[in-house]
Fold this sequence. Notes:
By secondary structure, the chain is of the alpha/beta class. It contains nine helices and ten strands. The chain is globular and about 60 Å long.
Amino acid sequence: HHMNYSTIDYQVSDGVATILLKRVDQLNAVNSIMSNELPDAWNKFNNDDSAIVAIISGSGDKSFCTGADLMDLPDMNDDLGKATIESIKWTSLQNQIWKPVICAVNGMCCAGGLHFIADSDIIIASDHSTFFDTHVKVGLVAGLEPVGLSRKIPLESVLRMSLVGGGERMSAEQALNIGLIGEIVPHEKLLRRANEIADMIKLHSPSALSKTKKAIWKSKETGLTDALHYAWGLISEQNIHSDFKEGTSAFAEKRSPVWKPYSNN
């Protein structure tokens, strides 16, 4: 089923939600409208039991996302007119979505576009994709995206990208080497490959998937002991969930498991 958005395309098919950034002429930059449509789409995905995993990608073959549209800036202000970090709800993690998310980078990914790389679970990219950050070039602080990325890739790579300001662009090969992305795909096969990965994920227990994702992401915010205790809490929770029994029964009976919908978690 399709939702009616003007800056993105959202559809769910066979367990997989696909969110496509759809401002091709503006290099899929996030404007004031897209900034509101993205959180709406993420929450639709979260509340739709038929959608187990999401793919986020960009339209066209030139750009994935170039961040905020400087000609039509997203509204970052709260009710008092003060800019607030909570206003940036472009990604799954920024919306506290614990269902799995694959990011399929179809071209240039720069500045605010890096939020999607920082916050997605699995990232694949077209062979011609490039990664760079132009914040300092236009007098802005590169603050949020590099902080998110520094939990994924070497600190030197983050500082270099942030300070060079687009003077050099990281290739897909370099991005793969430092673990910024997990796989390089020929452009014409990008979404097909994203769907292949989604098809592997969607077979599994939605409750187990979400708790697994949560345990891993939350561990990046604490020390090891706290992280392990937090994960243990999620494991204990799952052990009284009906999917736990169903998984073992299905295995013993050599049949496919029938999982509970996500909303039952």
